[in-house]
Amino acid sequence: MVQRDIVHFKPYLKSITIMKPKGQALKEHPFDIPAVQAIDTLEFHPDVTFLVGENGSGKSTILEAIAVAMEFGAQGGTGNFSMDDRDGLSKLHNFIRPKRSYQRPRDRYFLRAESFYNIGVYLEDLWRDPDARTSREQAFRRYGGKSLHHRSHGESFMSLINDAFSGHGLYILDEPEAALSPSRQLAALARIHDLVRDQSQFIIATHSPILMSYPNSKIYLLDQTGCRSVPFEQTEHLLITRDFLNAYPKRLKQLLSNTPLLDLLEED
Q1: Residues 6+ apart with CB under 8 A from 262
Q2: Is 160 left (phi over 0), alpha (psi -120 to 50) or beta?
Q3: Which structural domain, as residue segments, surrounds residue 172?
Q4: Considering only CA atoms, which of 224, 236, 220 is closest in space to residue 33?
Q5: What is the pLDDT of residue 125?
Q6: Contacts of 229 (CB under 8 A, 6+ apart)
Q7: What is the per-residue pLDDT across 32-90, written as a single tens digit (0 to 9) for each?
Q8: 3 inside domain
């Protein structure tokens, strides 16, 4: 029997280059964000790339710009429909040059936790629009045939990742853990692995140490010093979570006595 070589199509998105503006524009948003200033070229892992950092570090701004540069809608959705929000859209996508592979993804999705509800509204409107001639089954086919509004936020996201993501895809996810309990984060991690093995690539902005523990990945930390690659074991998310869980009675006592967080981490 002749053994056939496995064809690898990934990464669909190899890297992005941020072309910096000149003059006053370089001092304006979003170029006033240290991570945006620091990034010239950002290379992506063929399987999973994480963007991590505090709120305001630029994760969502960069992720949104990547998605728009890759022809997703700014508010999220598939490659077949999008919901634009031009008033809330940063200008960063105009300065991004993506480097793609020759192979295009068969499936694609941009998830924004803050606007996922709007996708449910869009699908409901599509189903009820007499001119669209769309049956309920067609409108919600990617989501297990059931309205997203008839489920909890977490159930809707699990339906998205289990039913809507079909593999051979590029999936851009902005804080997917916002809807998920710890046990469902574990389930999502397992599903991400299944999709990675089915020729999918993920770019994820997250605060979840459970998700960012995925081994076949690259983690970029965005902070006031810029943007750099870090191992999972050195992420603040893991260190603080592990420290708290290993000594939570002591930590609670210290926290409730108004001890500053940095002092807690330095005490031991």
Answers
A1: none
A2: alpha
A3: 13-233
A4: 224
A5: 47
A6: 218, 219, 220, 221
A7: 999 999 999 999 999 999 999 999 999 999 999 999 999 887 777 775 555 555 555 67
A8: no
